[in-house]
Design a protein that fits this description.
This protein is mainly β. The protein has five helices and eleven strands. It has two domains: about 1-65 and about 190-225, no CATH class; about 70-185, no CATH class. The longest helix is centred in the N-terminal third of the chain and has 6 residues, at about 50-55. Mean pLDDT is about 80; it is low at about 120-125.
């Protein structure tokens, strides 16, 4: 499981502290001014252009999309998909709990949030190979302010490997469950995100083995000298 603490300054600045399952230390990340900055385990900052290649190769969390996923998802929901649980107490606060069941028309929106299995295909998941079996969104809202305090999003997908080259004859259907949990706090809090000092533009130590492969990965970056 990956955990992230995020500060966001609209429209395009974020400061993230990532807890990765493969690392014992947190990985700091800053997105600002069209650049992405990653700090290595030894404390050095590396700089990348904020491009689609950087996002994909570093497997960066689309944190700016998590701040308001409802703006993307709610237009896809019909009235019959809502369940209102009424007011519940969460972390000492009385919040309105609403559950939304999403249909197959939410596939692209969920893929955009990295909640659809299939990146093995390269680029965006292909809907003809990946089936959205189930997707459920839960939100806990402060009715006085309309602020969301807690959000969970769970998706179940089936990935059909039978049409891929060199696929095995058995177990061609892979079922994958993905969960997203977001806690919101410090509403309207004024903050600033500093640009990391003395950041060095990252240069991959070797070219990718094949065209189209990533020239760098997050693991190699954070373990760099």
């Amino acid at each position: 499981m990956t955990h992230a603490d995020v500060d966001e300054v609209l429209p395009d600045q974020t400061q993230t502290s990532l807890d990765l399952p493969s690392e014992t230390a947190k990985v700091p990340e800053v997105v600002k001014g069209g650049q992405v900055y990653i700090q290595t385990l030894k404390g050095k900052w590396y700089q990348f252009s904020n491009s689609e290649e950087t996002t994909n190769c570093l497997s960066l969390l689309p944190v700016t999309k998590y701040t308001d996923p409802l703006a993307t998802l709610l237009p896809l929901v019909q009235d019959t998909n809502f369940t209102d649980h009424g007011t519940e107490k969460l972390d000492g606060q009385n919040l309105r709990h609403i559950t939304v069941t999403l249909g197959s028309n939410a596939f692209d929106a969920l893929a955009d949030l990295d909640l659809v299995y299939g990146r093995i295909l390269g680029g965006s998941p292909r809907q003809e190979l990946v089936k959205l079996d189930n997707a459920v969104l839960n939100v806990w809202i402060d009715e006085a302010t309309s602020y969301i305090h807690h959000l969970t999003l769970k998706s179940d997908t089936s990935f059909d490997r039978s049409n891929l080259p060199r696929s095995s004859t058995s177990s061609t259907i892979v079922k994958v469950e993905k969960d997203l949990t977001v806690d919101y706090s410090q509403f309207n809090h004024v903050t600033s995100i500093p640009t990391p000092a003395n950041a060095t533009p990252y240069v991959a130590s070797a070219s990718p083995a094949l065209p189209g492969l990533c020239p760098f990965q997050l693991t190699s970056v954070i373990n760099a000298a």
